[in-house]
Amino acid sequence: MNRAAATIARRDASPASADWPGDVLARADKARVRTRSCAQCDLGSLAFCDGFAPRTVSSIRRVQCTVQHDAHDTLFREGDEGAAVYSVLSGAIKVYKLMPDGRRQITGFFFRGDMFGFCLDGSYAYTAEAITPIEVCRLPMQRLNDLSETAPEVQHRIMLRMTAKLAQFHNHVLLLGRKTARERVATFLLSLSDRARRRGDPPSPLALPMGRADIADYIGLTVETVSRTMTAFKRDGLIDLPTPNHIDICRAEALRAVSDGTARG
Predict the structure, then answer these.
(1) Which residue range or ranges hold the Cyclic nucleotide-binding domain (predicted)?
(2) Of 143, 72, 84, 90, which Cα lies nearest the Cα of 119?
(3) Under CATH, what is the fold of the domain 3-170?
(4) Among the listed residues 136, 27, 130, 142, the one whose alpha carbon sits nearest the alpha carbon of residue 83
């Protein structure tokens, strides 16, 4: 029995076994699914259920499950039934859309404390893929909707998370539609730094779990342009690149001026 099957074989011992997701079980060859008490969650204020009444947390615990994936595993595909939302416990995820000819637009990166998987028409609008090994908390959307009828704070929290995603979407539209290559790369790096700060991590140095091709597909540039621009930023003393997957932001305000289009020269 492989490690995924061994983990799943224990699901009947869980009080939430009736709510184990078919889509996750169908990927049993890759995903490791297990129960995890909300009391063991170390997200703190980043957690979806942070501050909820004990009774509400107990209700969520009965229907959630924790899913582990290896790097490059697909959590769900565009067009799949949008049965659940996910909260990232560890690792990094990218979401993207594909054109018929294979061209790809990455629409978001998600890290510890982020949520993704919200949909309006009953199906996912994008594909979600693990960049690194990940652990996510899976929350059935229908159960959350049912719970929100007796616990309004759940619906309020969902709205807050969706509103935050909408704000990110508008910023991304601005980046793709109006910014130059230098402005796009600067905006991307500062966005990672700002998000790290908000989740309690150092804003610099930054780990870059995604490759240059992923960055290029997110900000609408070629891989060569992304690499050239980062090299230019290093030459100008704005950043340092100790390794291809790590970056030090040396002059944050100067980099922000580039991002805003107010830099001189």
Answers:
(1) 69-117
(2) 84
(3) Jelly Rolls (2.60.120)
(4) 142
